[in-house]
Amino acid sequence: MSHTLRNLVLVLGDQLDLQAAAFDGFSAEHDAVWMAEVAEESTHVWSSQPRIAVFLAAMRHFARALEAAGRPLHYRRLDANDTQPTLAAQLRADLATLKPQRLLLTRPGDWRVLQALQDAAQAAGVSMELREDRHFFTTPQDFARHAQGRKGLRTEYFYREQRQRFRVLMDGDQPQGGAWNFDAENREAFGPEGPGFDLPQPPHFEPDVVTREVLDLVRRRFADHPGRLDRFAWPLTRAQALQALQAFIHERLPLFGPYQDAIWPGEPWLYHAQLSAALNLKLLTPHEVVAAAEAAVRSGRVPIASGEGFIRQILGWREYVRGIYWTRMPGYAEGNALQAQHDLPAWYWTGDTDMACLRDALKQTLEHGYAHHIQRLMVTGLFALLYGVEPRQVHAWYLSVYVDAVEWVELPNTLGMSQYADGGLMASKPYIATGKYISRQSPLCGSCRYRPDERVGARACPFTTLYWDFLLRHEARFANHPRLALQVRGLARVDEAERARIRAQADALRVP
Ligand SMILES: Cc1cc2nc3c(=O)[nH]c(=O)nc-3n(C[C@H](O)[C@H](O)[C@H](O)COP(=O)(O)OP(=O)(O)OC[C@H]3O[C@@H](n4cnc5c(N)ncnc54)[C@H](O)[C@@H]3O)c2cc1C
Ligand code: SF4
Fold first, then answer.
1. How far is the CA of 383 from the centre of ligand 2 (A)?
2. Which residue in 174, 233, 357, 405 could disulfide with 444, CB within 3.0 to 4.6 Å?
């Protein structure tokens, strides 16, 4: 390398892609890469052990890939003596010695990190070039154009635009199969026998020496953080991520659609892809994931309802939430449209509750750093919404516990879709339901001390009590809401004495 360092390419823990935009024009002779493990990224929210381990282990594997590609690397390890506590402080310290002419950064996944790195570069007097992240199908500017002049934003219209623009599942100018959306054919529950013994299991990636070292580090350094590491088996390299993708497309995608919303105790993955962490770390591109699913549909191996349902999650929802994030931050994080003020119950961090559905979803979350969408939206999220937890605290919990949690995707899903804290920008109505919804989607109510169809009394299901309490608390706000008014009208059959009983029971549930 020449004596003067031209470009220092900053690579963050969720930017593990040799083709990232910040590498364009990279020359091993003139440029170098910078990566840093810092404590703040695991402590600014109380990150779970699985989440910390996924990020650190994937970073260390990526460092090897960089070395193999011959790209000079300055890598700061958390277990070294001289590391700084924050990314910004570490960057400032390293700029003093490396003295690059310029910094290159692909747009990060977190507004806070972008600000901190830009401030650090400015304080050091080094210019920084921010490059758009071409990992995604769309840019924040594309989203802003889509949103311009619209009264309401709906993912369905955005999704259809992307199907047409990228020619995904299209026959000429018509959607393949004659419809944009096959949801009516999806959303089944399992029968009493459950998913059965032949449920395909996703590949298990046994921790190698690099990963085992990280697991030891996390156990020592973050011993008081939530979650467990004894079942850790996530894909952490590009090769493993590709293997996980192939296994999903061949073995689980065919039944993804019908069982998308089903919950079965002890079966965390069911027919879900388990690919969000690999995608968010940038080990996989959404383009290759969508292309693989589309090819499987076109070959006739996968029904259109499953293939389309899956593609909609990636090409629709994933892009849409990112657009919301980058066009609405930083104010978006402050949203609290329903003025929810309660603290998150402490048992969210342990799973120690009598409610069978929450216990199952929380224990699984702590064990694997994973829960599927309906568990996040209609179990943990629904309970927090009905209980009235302050959205900021719900957001911190989701950002902490899941291995796929990066703020651009976690925040709109939590604050917008799940907690309605943005007042309806992201979701057309609050997703509220009684315990009967959970009893339709899972067998869990059968093993619970509560009864989903009772709203007051010793055996009343807390979801059902809190659902009616939610309607009572927000009756005026939603009385004329196009999608919630019907539910609100149910209050007409609840007399004053019953209303008082519901309120008292809900208040008792909130006593810590
Ligand atoms: C409250 C809440 C918080 C969430 N937090 C996150 C998060 O931090 N990170 C994250 O990646 N997803 C998040 N999601 C979305 C979704 O639950 C996960 O992407 C999904 O459960 C990951 O598991 P999977 O890979 O098996 O997905 P599958 O169910 O098999 O779906 C396939 C893929 O579609 C994408 N996808 C599906 N739904 C969404 C969505 N709503 N938004 C964005 N992408 C989606 C993911 O990349 C996922 O891998 C959250 C959802 C809710 C309701
Ligand atoms: S009865 Fe209520 S708390 Fe118990 S599992 Fe069913 S929905 Fe959950």
1. 11
2. 357
